[in-house]
């Protein structure tokens, strides 16, 4: 067993590894990423059957995230996400959704959210019970991935989607702008953060630009039609918000 495997397994708590996921540590491949990474997880085929649940826990995706992006021995380790490396399943949980949905005319393939309940009584108990059935406990943060998208997208696109959602689970800053920590546990305080220049820089640095972001970069290369102040205020109407 290589040092990489040892580091990954030591980093994960025993409950993070299932028998079916042992193959993850021995099956590495070369793909569009350009070097060897743990084989990316795919949604189970049966999630697309009509008589099955629309949502399925994706523990193997979380295990893959820990091994690929949060382990310093991985070639795809990202220092931007280091604050997440000390959290385990189900503090941060991942869920497959059978399909995506449309928001503001665009298909959403993934979301990251802080789990919160805005109800009491049986409504809250029912919601909590659902999470416990899925994950064994109520998670603090939840990443949901469109299984129909993940089934067919490239390795590069899948990695970019996952990292995009990871960037949303940010290390909270204190009043002075420094990373904040829980005084009792010493763990980083987390928060959901919208799209910002740091997230754009991180994703573009690792995967390149495409789509709307590529258009923004190309536009930035041109002579400005308006003042910088006007462009700054106009940007507030774009779709660069948490989804």
From TrEMBL:
Residues 63-221 form the Putative phage metallopeptidase domain. It comes from the Bacteria. Pfam families: PhageMetallopep (PF18894). This is Putative phage metallopeptidase domain-containing protein. It comes from Acinetobacter stercoris. The lineage of its organism: Bacteria, Pseudomonadati, Pseudomonadota, Gammaproteobacteria, Moraxellales.
């Amino acid at each position: 067993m290589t040092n990489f495997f040892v580091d990954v397994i030591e980093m994960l708590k025993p409950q993070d590894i299932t028998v079916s996921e042992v193959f993850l540590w021995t099956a590495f491949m070369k793909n569009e990423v350009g070097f060897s990474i743990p084989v990316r997880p795919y949604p189970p085929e049966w999630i697309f059957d009509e008589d099955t649940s629309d949502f399925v826990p994706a523990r193997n995706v979380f295990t893959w995230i820990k091994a690929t992006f949060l382990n310093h021995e991985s070639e795809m380790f990202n220092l931007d996400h280091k604050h997440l490396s000390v959290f385990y399943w189900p503090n941060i949980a991942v869920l497959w959704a059978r399909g995506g949905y449309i928001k503001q005319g665009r298909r959403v393939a993934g979301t990251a959210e802080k789990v919160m309940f805005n109800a009491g009584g049986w409504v809250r108990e029912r919601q909590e019970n659902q999470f416990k059935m899925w994950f064994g406990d109520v998670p603090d943060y939840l990443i949901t991935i469109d299984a129909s998208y993940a089934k067919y997208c490239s390795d590069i696109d899948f990695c970019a989607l996952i990292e995009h959602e990871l960037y949303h689970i940010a290390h909270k800053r204190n009043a002075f702008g420094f990373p904040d920590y829980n005084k009792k546990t010493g763990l980083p305080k987390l928060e959901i953060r919208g799209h910002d220049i740091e997230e754009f820089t991180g994703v573009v640095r690792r995967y390149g630009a495409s789509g709307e972001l590529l258009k923004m970069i190309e536009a930035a290369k041109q002579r400005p039609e308006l003042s910088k102040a006007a462009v700054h205020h106009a940007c507030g109407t774009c779709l660069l918000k948490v989804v």
